[in-house]
Amino acid sequence: MTDEIVVIEGDGIGREVVPAAVEVLSAFEFDFEFVTAEAGDATRDATGDALPDATYERVADADATLFGAAGETAADVILPLRKAVDSFVNVRPATAYPGVDALRPETDVVFLRENTEGVYSGHEDRLSDDLSTLTRVVTSSASRELAEYACEFVEDGRGPAGDPDEGFTVAHKANVMRETDGRFREEVLAVADERGVDADEELMDAFATKLPLDPTQYGVVVCPNLAGDVLSDLAAGLVGGLGLLPSANVGHDNALFEPVHGTAPDIAGEGVANPTAAILSAAMLLEYLGHAGAADRVREAVETVLAEGPRTGDLGGEATTEEVTAAVVDRL
Ligand code: ATP
Ligand code: MG
After folding, report:
1. Name one GO molecular function term (predicted).
2. pTM of the prediction?
């Protein structure tokens, strides 16, 4: 059966790293149909709309989407697209690789971030000249759905340790936000208990101290929306280099994959962007579509190239995006 993959390059280095990722996907003989779609600043300038309906619908109807980056229209593009794939979890691995200068080279964690509610649910109001408020939304259903995903993730050995017995850590602030984070914590731990998955908990502020001091204490980390956003960026800082980090927005029967970095306007158009984050996003896409073996091969190829070169400028090398991509494809 053909899998339809929507490809959105977007702006800036998205136009350079997404083709690199497609080249890697094309190195396999899978039955993929790539459908290109437009979104971002350039699309807005050309059509008046950063996210045309046609793009939204293509993404909603696809099997998976590979997205690059959007410039100043990022929020207008990526937030609706996450809705288009009905994403309830944002998956963000932070892995340090040999050969890459990292603050904490032993870091290997995966964040599973709630992707629909919390303080990002959009319920903000300006009530007067002096007062603005935000309503924080936490449902048992979304918390349980995230926890079910986390349990499956751990059971399938997809955590950094590859060992289901490692379980996961839930980070929260239920001692202060007793109602909202209290509900989140309770539901996540209850699901883990029902499924026999080992789960421990950590207050998110304590976690923010302990992670950089000793990242080896953690593997899979489950978080509410805002906490996941901040804590996964903290972990990104430990592994060195925005050019390395992939992410996935996973929904019920659809998903969107994107590098964590943005459009990198300072180097865009020069052909020197690091394609690693986009290629690792493509590896997550392969795994999502049921090609776990191929995904592992991509990760191994990337790891070898990071260790042995060629490397792009952000990692101290002089290679172009094309040269690094060719080296990865060669390794495959
Ligand atoms: P945006 O508003 O689109 O996020 P930005 O200016 O914040 O743009 P980022 O893409 O977030 O830029 O990147 C921040 C810094 O990291 C920039 O200096 C950029 O060059 C560098 N960077 C990000 N991604 C890569 C990459 N793939 N390869 C090399 N350098 C990168
Ligand atoms: Mg940025």
Report:
1. isocitrate dehydrogenase (NAD+) activity
2. 0.94
The predicted pLDDT at position 148 comes to 98
Per-residue confidence (pLDDT) for residue 222, from 0 to 100: 98
ipTM value > 0.90: yes
Nearest to 248 by CA among 132, 110, 127: 110
Ligand 1 contacts (CB < 6 A) are 12-13, 17, 69, 71, 242-243, 261-267, 273-274, 277, 312, 314
The residues near 89 (Cβ < 8 Å, ≥ 6 apart) are: 112, 113, 114, 115, 145, 146, 149, 249, 250
Q: Number of C-alpha atoms within 13 angstroms, CB side, residue 123?
A: 10
pLDDT of residue 119: 84
The tokens for 1 are 């059966």
The alpha carbon of residue 229 and the mean position of all alpha carbons in its chain are separated, in whole angstroms, by 10
CB 137 within 8 A of CB 121: yes
Q: Among 9, 67, 239, 314, which residue has the most ligand 1 atoms within 8 Å of its CB, making it the best to mutate?
A: 314
Token pair belonging to 167: 């379980």
* pLDDT value of residue 240: 83
Atom number of ligand 1 nearest to Cα 276: 27
Give 133-137 contacts, CB < 8 A, sequence gap 24+: 136/177, 136/180, 137/180
**Can you name the residues that pair with 169 across neighbouring β-strands?**
200, 221
Residue owning the nearest CA to atom 7 of ligand 1: 262
Can 97 be counted among the known catalytic residues? no
pLDDT mean by block of 10 residues, the chain; 332 residues: 96 98 97 98 97 98 98 94 95 94 95 91 91 95 97 94 92 97 98 97 97 96 94 92 92 96 96 98 97 96 96 95 98 94
Buried b (16+ CB within 10 A) or exposed e, 191-216: bbeeeebebebbbbeebeeebeeebe
Element (H, E) at 249: strand 246-250
